[in-house]
Amino acid sequence: MEYLSPTTVEEASELLAARPDAEVFAGATDVIPQLRAGRAEPGALVDLKGIERLVSVSADDAGWTIGAATPTADLTGNAQLSAEFPGLVEAAGLIGSDQIQNRSSLGGNLCNASPAADSVPAMVVNDMRAVVAGPDGTRTIPVVDVTTGPGSTSLGPGEFVVEFQLDHRPARTGDAYLRLIPRTEMDIAVVGAGARLSFDEAGVCTSAAVALGAVAPTVVRVSDAESALVGTAASDILGNGDAMAAVAAAATAACNPIDDKRGTVAYRRQVAGVLARRAVTAATERALATNGAATDGAAANGVS
Amino acid sequence: MARTHVTCTINGDETEFLCEQDETLLNALRDDVGLTGVKEGCGTGDCGACSVLLNNRLTCACLVFAPEADGATIVTVEGLASAEALHPVQQTFLEGAALQCGVCTPGFLVAAKALLDHNPDPTETEVRYALAGNLCRCTGYDKIVRAVLDAAADMRSDGALTAD
Question: Which residue of B has its CA nearest to A188?
Fold first, then answer.
């Protein structure tokens, strides 16, 4: 197996076009264990970390651009990103140990296509887009469209994720991600739940996104929970009113889980309802805590 | 395939080695450079026995391809002590008997150094989280956590003395 380290997106695309036996990698935290476990070695592995654009974080008036191979430690260490999107950053920070955090990335977490990937529900509720480079140039697709099943993605031959786009948070908006594991660190989600809610000045929910991980072959958007939340007052959400019962029921119903050593189907369904409700509560509390202040895009400019 | 030539700085010394392109940094450090303080535990990034600082970031050497090290700065457990003295965390592990078989110890020492480098006054909880990627199957963690907290205290008081 050859190790190749291009320094530009174009060079990487040319390499991949010329070498159909090549695969890309970022932190290698999944690739190396998979190779050890007997996965067939590709003819070449293309290290994307040598491309500066893929290992950088920046913000402008529109939003954030996060390089696909950026170590997640750089996201948890970014105070402005953490303040604006605490749920996204917490999800990214849950991937493995400190050792792993220095290598793991949003692009790797997404494209490894584990149903239990922690960052994916948080990326989905924040409407993040993936910029994908390939033989025919670049295209931008919603993150939710990248994975198609365990270990499989919609990316074509020679395509790889360059970076993620994330619009600035609107006023009175909060996000959250919660996962259940039997211990406090170093485990894989039994269930993960991401939520993001926005409210108007009267405290009524104007938009909601709820997504679950580890309960189906891919991340699941819970549209019935979202429609139950829109139009609901924050006080009803925090008071665990009818809408929250609907959120829990919808999350349980949206699951299509498997039995495995981490949990049974019945347990995952039950926990998905509980976690979805708690994530909605946490996102609501954060939205109210922003006191109506939209993020100052100008203040975030130039952050790297 | 021809072996790949890698030039890097290891424990302050410019070092060159030849490696296979699909070799891990762990194997290269142990077999090609001879730094056997870097231990192989699981080989899959779960146990932390192979923890090194790669460009000042705590990393499992088993999850790095050796050619990635070209141009990098690496610190292994062999680089913690000075010519005169052990690193404070090595000293407190010794004094507190924070090891039994010792295979996990190099990884714990490097991870502890990485923590104390950027957080000189960690809480016990912070120490436990920072060491969550390092597994020990004989000592139990209490002595290890106490040794790291003791080292932090020693380093703070040494710093205070130096500042005076």
Answer: B46
**Residue-range domain boundaries for chain A:** 51-167, 173-289
The verdict on B146 touching A (C-beta cutoff 8 Å) is no
Tell whether B43 lies on the interface with A, counting CB pairs under 8 A. Answer: yes
Annotation: CATH topology of B4-79? Ubiquitin-like (UB roll) (3.10.20)
Beta partners for residue A220, in sequence order: A212
Averaged pLDDT of chain A: 94
Residue B36, Cβ density class (10 Å: 0-12 exposed, 13-18 middle, ≥19 buried): middle
Fold of A173-289: Enolase-like; domain 1 (3.30.390)
User: What is the tens place of the pLDDT at every residue in A158-180?
Assistant: 999 999 999 999 999 999 999 99
In this structure, which topology does domain A51-167 adopt according to CATH?
A: 3.30.465
Beta strands in B20-161 (DSSP E): 51-54, 57-60, 73-75
**CB contacts, 8 Å: A3 with chain B:** 4, 21-22, 65, 67-68
Q: Where are the domains of chain B?
A: 4-79, 88-163
Of A1, A47, A98, the CB nearest to B58: A98
Q: What is this model's ipTM?
A: 0.95
| B90 at A interface, C-beta within 8 A | no
- For chain A, how big is the Rg over CA atoms in Å? 19
- Cβ-count burial of A297 within 10 angstroms (0-12 exposed, 13-18 middle, 19+ buried)? middle
Neighboring chain A residues of B46 at a CB cutoff of 8 Å: 186
